[in-house]
Amino acid sequence: MTRATTRTAGGTATTDGAPDAAGDTHPGNGVAGVGEAAPRREYRPGRDLTAQMAYLTRVIKAPTIAAVWIDLADQARQENWSHEEYLATVLARQVAAREANGTAIRTAGAHFPAVKTLEDFTLDHQPSLRRDVLAHLATCTFIPTAGNAILLGPPGVGKTHLAIGLGIKAVQAGHPVLFDTATSWVTRLRTAHEQGRLPGELRRLRRYRLLIIDEIGYIPFDALAANLFFQLISSRYEQGSVLATSNMPFSRWGEIFGDDVVAAAMIDRLVHHAEVLTLTGDSYRTRNRRDLITKTPAEPTGPRTG
Ligand code: ADP
Ligand code: MG
């Protein structure tokens, strides 16, 4: 079946004076003279086939196939690919292009403040970080089930870095993501609230499978902000994932939201289906300066071998 179809296409293709595609395929197969390259007749698909392919690839919205099918066919003939291998290679190119395109669009739409990858994160600097939990989060399997992730720790330990890195993983896995700081989320919700479109805005945010809320706790919320934030977390509960970072332990979230009851209700919803990663240690930002400082002989390092 496949063979017959391919033959038909080949037949169409040969109308411009390349009667035997196979003949063009291996010009050098044992016939090339010593030291002289066999002349390789360029195979050109006929006008009909070219037009047909242009039309077909447009209909199925496959511009990459339109761009590669001729060159890959040349390569296939030179390298003796089977028809099946050629077809699979052409399709794989289109799929790869589509995925790369989707990832690029989702990355732009996520509004990451910087490009930070998990691969660039030095785990050695976080000896107590639960690597199994991070690896699990990196698989993004928590997103289809609307699970959450919380990163806690003092300033400069890599919370935002990990949040972006995990966000990039999610984008690559095909999930729409939106990143913003807690303060900016509140600004967005406050505007929607003032314009009477808060429910619509919360509904619209559902199309993002992962919302990243960075820096909860740096700036305390007033009562309205706390209320709006609570509505955001409630609307996500078991509907869509939230990845939140905070410099404050949960025990102090009452201070952020100015209300222990609201904070407790929010934490309850956030952590019900969540992985919590705690980062520790000194700021990575100032580590080089500290290295310089600790290089003074005053630093007691203890007895060391080697
Ligand atoms: P936080 O959000 O916890 O305040 P950031 O994620 O902004 O910290 O980290 C501060 C800077 O240090 C960023 O440039 C980040 O890329 C870098 N950084 C922090 N921890 C690490 C780490 N373990 N490996 C590599 N870079 C790190
Ligand atoms: Mg940060």
Kindly describe this structure.
With 306 residues, the chain is α/β, with parallel strands linked by helices. It has two domains: 76 residues, no CATH class; 179 residues, P-loop containing nucleotide triphosphate hydrolases (Rossmann fold, 3-Layer(aba) Sandwich), CATH 3.40.50. The protein contains 13 helices and five strands. A five-stranded parallel β-sheet has the order 2-3-4-1-5. Strand 3, helix 10 and strand 4 form a beta-alpha-beta unit. Helix 3 crosses helix 4. The longest helix is centred in the first third of the chain and has 28 residues. The chain is elongated, with a radius of gyration of 29 Å. The N terminus and C terminus are likely disordered. Bound molecules: adenosine-5'-diphosphate (ADP) and magnesium ion.
How far is the first residue's CA from the last residue's CA?
A: 71 Å
The CATH architecture of the largest domain can be named as 3-Layer(aba) Sandwich
CATH superfamily of the largest domain: P-loop containing nucleotide triphosphate hydrolases
Spans where pLDDT lies below 50 across 5 or more residues: 1-35, 297-306
Helicity, as a percent range: 40-55%
User: How many discrete structural domains?
Assistant: 2
Biggest sheet: strands, sense, closure?
A: 5 strands, parallel
